[in-house]
Amino acid sequence: MLSTGQQKFYYYYFIAHIFTTILVDSIVVLPERFQVTKPLVDYHIAFNNDFLLYEKPSWLWWFILIECVGQLPGFFWFAYKIRQLWALKTISGEDKHIKMQLATCERSLSWWLRLYGWNAASTTFICLYTVWTRGYYPDGDLLPMLVSDKLKLMAVYVPYLLIPLRLCFI
């Protein structure tokens, strides 16, 4: 299981990821009339040359749909279970019933965190591969991106590979 410091990190990661999913990523799957943060996403596209969010390929639509339908509720659940874990640790003492609850909570949480980590890391890896092999400027001319601009865009995506990937090894 994760250390207490890592649990705190992932607790805040999941809380922050709720907002990222709702405000940014959901733009890919929502009809335009529901895209209240479109100006924010358009700024990100222009600033980082994010041709994936500009183009919205069908495979990305499916990835984001899975994120919104499967992962988003999971972010709430993960945050809840991490807090439950902390509460159980503070009251466990010698009570065997509490220790059993703690072990069950850790087992369940670990399994679902690994599943999330595998899903999020693998889909983000595909995005990174696409940026590296197919990157272009989304301003209409379809010019190939310079390596420096590819690396800049990849730097936006890399945390969403590495942070979940770490969960595969708990």
Automatic annotation (TrEMBL):
GO cellular component terms, semicolon-separated: endoplasmic reticulum membrane
UniProt KW Transmembrane keyword: yes
Domain EXPERA: 6-168
TM segment ranges: 9-30, 59-80, 111-131, 151-169
Keyword Transmembrane helix assigned: yes
Subcellular location: Endoplasmic reticulum membrane
Keywords: Endoplasmic reticulum, Membrane, Transmembrane, Transmembrane helix
Membrane topology value: Multi-pass membrane protein
Recorded superkingdom: Eukaryota
Family of the protein in this entry: Belongs to the TMEM97/sigma-2 receptor family.
Protein name: Efficient mitochondria targeting-associated protein 19
Species for this entry: Lachancea nothofagi CBS 11611
